[in-house]
Amino acid sequence: MLQNLSTADISVCANCGKEGNSDEIKNICNKCKKVKYCNAVCKKKHRSKHKKECEGHIRLAAEHAAKLHDIELFKQPSPPEDDCPICFLLIPKLGTGSSYYACCGKRVCNGCAHAPVYDNQGNVVAEKICPFCRTPVPKSEEEMIERYEKRMEAIDVIAIYAMGCYYREGLHGYPQDVGKGLELLHRAAELGYPLAYSCIGNMYEIGRGVEVDKKKARHYYELAAIGGCEKARYNLGSNEKSSSSMGRALKHYMIAVRSGQNNSLSAIKRLYSNGHASKDDYMEAIQAYQKYLGEIKSPQRDKAAAAHVRYRYY
Fold first, then answer.
1. How far is the first Cα of the chain from the last one, in angstroms, to the nearest whole number?
2. 67 lies in a domain?
3. Is residue 208 part of a domain?
4. pLDDT in tens, 73-119
5. Predicted structure pTM score
């Protein structure tokens, strides 16, 4: 009966030793999915003998999955292609370092946002306009919301994220609707805006409109960090530090500081002061952060930061 089957096609019942094809030996252990039986009776008889082996299979599978997850989690994200569309320098990570314009859907660094805008004759334009497309800024909240809604129709992830926040908090005339807010935040995240995952993680961590769920918070922080959100990466580092997992905390902080997360540099300094990071680790963090500052600084941005204190970008 089995003469025409290759060795790979033959299955063996773990209890009685009967051989057969996959249609005959098809009853599988529900837990480890590794052992097969010819019927439910054999499966039940073998349960006590298989228990220890089954637990070993499950443990090994969990350890393997955890290793693969950590490889993905601690991978340095690819450098974001997020340059200012006017000066073509990397947009600062700090939220106060850039402005979003719903007229054209562009994020512009605040060095360019606060620089004078000239008309075709070289005269400074007195009216407040978008520095990229030169559309006048909204004159009312209603006009601003109308622009955001149009950007949502164009699948603009920043607009979708912003509207999710508006619904979550009940801002700009929208009724507070946490469910609708979460729906929009999830949509923005799934379309490639990792900050939205970080926002969802924060909601579950502190119970902001939802039940506190630390496991869910960690899950969404990890999705955000893998996507390149340095804010979520810092939060993961802080959570690991609170759990006394200093090595994992340091890994998170080092990745975040390379992406310009200034709080992570302070966190690494504290780890160094408390003996949980080496001097080399701290020096590497300082050099990485200085490199980041070199990539985002410009005379125009320095001038804007000096004139508008709240627009710090470092």
1. 75
2. yes
3. yes
4. 998 887 656 899 999 999 988 777 899 999 999 999 989 998 888 87
5. 0.80
